[in-house]
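Problem 12. The chain below contains 253 residues. Write out its predicted structure in token notation.
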Amino acid sequence: MHLRAGHVQPVWAGHPWVYAQAIDRLEGRAEPGDEVRVADPRGNLLGRGFWSPTSAIPVRIFTRDAGRALDDAFLGERVRDAVRWRASLLGLPDAETTGMRLVNSEGDGLPGLIADRFGDDLVVQLLTAGIKRREGVILDALLRETGAARVWETASPTHQKLEQITSRDGLLRGDPVDALRFRELGVSLTVAPPGGADTQKTGYYFDQRDNRARVARLARGRRVLDGFAFVGGFAHAAARAGATEVLAVESGM
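Solution.
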């Protein structure tokens, strides 16, 4: 694949997305999910990723290493690095927190993959044709690195349409349970498994953990309103921290 003149700079500078309008031509044939090479108009390698012909972002760069194939070993190493980085830098999971983001798509060099941990359960979003095609390898790596008992998938209708993939809400590996149970900042939480129309993202907003900790520090002796509460993460954090009263408000869930 060659990019148009004038569209090379963002990718060359490190942006991982190749937009459809940036593509000049595709040499040879590529099926959805195939590995493709991205080059500038002179043929210089800019990176490699998986082909998503129906998406506004047909390629998301995984590597700029000319000698590295995007094979099973590569994907396994990226999953391993993501999980172990959180263990080494953040010390998670620990006794107080067993729920967290494990793989954050481009942030962990795995564009199109989201994986969250809910105690013994993992919930994934497989958002591109390339990632969905390699589902088995990715799930094997996640289970191997975490020792989790189950993996669930939560589908994104938007990405299914854009990527022309078929995903579903439900259990992919392991024996079913009626709830996902985990701890965050010492609070025990329970959420429903993926499978209902009310599921948002993977079922919990782990990226707000630091903000919930901040609210907890401010909540002691105060009355707290948790608006747009979703599953009540902020409300629980405030109550455990010693708020005198907590009101959580959510609509139509």
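Discussion. The CA atoms of residues 98 and 183 lie 5 Å apart. Students who got a different answer should revisit the alignment rule from Section 12.3.
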